[in-house]
Amino acid sequence: MKQSKDPFEAALEEQEESPPDSPVGEDELTSQTPNEAQNQTDGGQNILVDDDDDDYDDLGPTIKNPSHPSSSSTPKLHSTSVNASVSAAVTNKNKEYDDDEEEENVDVELSKFPSSADPTKMAKMQAILSQFTEDQMSRYESFRRSALQKSNMRRLLVSITGSQKISLPMTIVVCGIAKMFVGELVEKARMVMTERKESGPIRPCHIREAYRRLKLEGKVPKRSVQRLFR
Amino acid sequence: MSNPSAGTSSKAKVGSSQPSETSFKRKRGVFQKDLQHMMYGFGDDANPLPETVTLVEDIVVEYVTDLAHKAQDIGSKRGKLSVEDFLYLIRKDMPKLNRCTELLSMQEELKQARKAFEVDEEKLATLE
């Protein structure tokens, strides 16, 4: 698969030109402007949002990976550029190893990792990422880049609490919690599917079963008032 | 713990879709696009079924709602709602707690970085 045609890899190449989102300790102060300038093409409101999300998720997998099954991890995507390209790029799930492309992708990915992270973790990530298939790499990219919109979350929180004073850290934290919750749901749904020996896209019945199991495990906050209709 | 919607009108920060939004009306499909990518990233098909995405969105909204209500209960004892309340609620869930502390520390670093960057720009401006 040619790099220029694969939108995910094109996105990776974009990032390659402007090394992104590492937190302060880095040399990346100057490189943040090219990143922001480049992000402006993605659409007005999302400039800083995407920047923030990019930065957070860089360290994400190093901590999250141990708790996730091996098949899922993705770097981040700008959601605006990905919409059209997700279905197109990902429909072919060939599992061939394309070492050259992967290594280039790996180099791109690694240059993003901040050096303030644990070097042993970085080495581990490096080893893992270098062995990803294309399919795995695209999934990993989706995993890293996807995020719930902070503006939508803030709106939701305001409507729930009735208070206007929702701080930015609160929005960020709730977005992070919600994303991890989605992860738990989807992974458990996949487990349910393997138990039932079914395949294909996840269906609502799997999600419901996964949700029920999560409730039994106590990972879902219980309502003090019973909800009548579900 | 339901607050009357009368006092809360729309904020300018809210997206352009609805100028005046009561707090009880909830649009469906608010998180649909993001959720599709997210579900793919976590292990679903490349094109998750729309009903699945809708269901996951409902579950997530309910989860956030319950979480926020509980946080409000805790926060009301202290006065106002703060991030600490959310962190307290997920204290038992180690992966989530670690992730949240990481997010918060990175946000701090970013803030510092931006501040330093702006200061540099000001210096350049004054030099010129």
Automatic annotation (TrEMBL), chain B:
This is Transcription initiation factor TFIID subunit 13. Keywords: Nucleus, Transcription, Transcription regulation. It is found in: Nucleus. Residues 1-28 are annotated as: Disordered. Residues 1-22 have a biased composition (Polar residues). Belongs to the TAF13 family. Its main location: nucleus. Pfam families: TFIID-18kDa. The lineage of its organism: Eukaryota, Viridiplantae, Streptophyta, Embryophyta, Tracheophyta. PANTHER family: TRANSCRIPTION INITIATION FACTOR TFIID SUBUNIT 13, TRANSCRIPTION INITIATION FACTOR TFIID/SUPT3-RELATED.
